[in-house]
Amino acid sequence: MTLEGTEITWLGHASFIVKTPGGKTLVFDPWLGNEGNPKCPPNYNDLTQWGPVDYIFISHGHFDHLGSAVPLAQHTGAVVIANFEIAQYVEQHGATNTIGMNKGGTLELGEIRATMVYADHSSGISGESGMIYGGEAGGYVVTLENGMSIYHAGDTNVFGDMQHIRTLYAPDVALLPIGGHFTMGPKEAAYAARLLAPKVIIPMHYGTFDVLTGSPDALKDLLAGEAIEVQVLQPGDQYR
């Protein structure tokens, strides 16, 4: 599948940059190397090397998804989109442009539509005095200017209502965790793929830590014969 003017760059773990056909830059779950991501390509660690960012989407409050959101927002002026609790948290810590929302809500961002959907996961935030409440975890389906839709599942197990995501939003590309332990492994991700029926899956959230043992090869084997492409990226790779 070609993405018709869209470019997806994986920064390792669950962090992605999406450049849209209309010239917008979206970032999902930014966690860079200077905040501890061992898989992030070094050239992305220096914020002065980043170009404009329009929107930052945060799926939940864990450090490996929220960790670089505030400094990236401060540097680029991007709008941070998150559940209500996380939006409040990042505002209090220096991100001045935020939109708090919740599952089922849809934002009209010019010609882009972004809907927060369910995820089966937790969402605590590591604060100065320990773990604090971070609302509930979610995912996003973002429909771009050309009508193509991308589903960033965040951290999640498979859940039956993924079939509703398929019916309501028909994602073309699904960014799915496969590492296991904290999220789906390949077995669950393959079942999720059948519920969602995207054209392409990009595996994420694997190999960062020793416990994240799920592999793209295992996912490919489980989906052999299915009409779903598994597009494996290395950190820093771009898919167009």
Written account of the structure:
The chain has about 240 residues and is α/β, with parallel strands linked by helices. It has a single domain (about 5-240), classed as Ribonuclease Z/Hydroxyacylglutathione hydrolase-like (Metallo-beta-lactamase, Chain A, 4-Layer Sandwich). It contains six helices and 16 strands. It has helices spanning about 65, 70-75, 85-90, 160-170, 185-195, 215-220, and strands at about 5-10, 15-20, 25-30, 55, 80-85, 100, 105-110, 110-120, 125, 130, 140-145, 150, 175, 200-205, 230, 240. The protein has a seven-stranded mixed sheet with strand order 6-5-4-3-2-1-16, covered by helices on one side. Strands 7-8-11-12-13-14-15 form a seven-stranded mixed sheet. Strands 9-10 form a two-stranded antiparallel sheet. The longest helix has 11 residues, at about 185-195. The radius of gyration is 16 Å and the shape is globular. The chain starts with 6 loop residues before the first strand and ends with a strand. The relative contact order is 0.16.
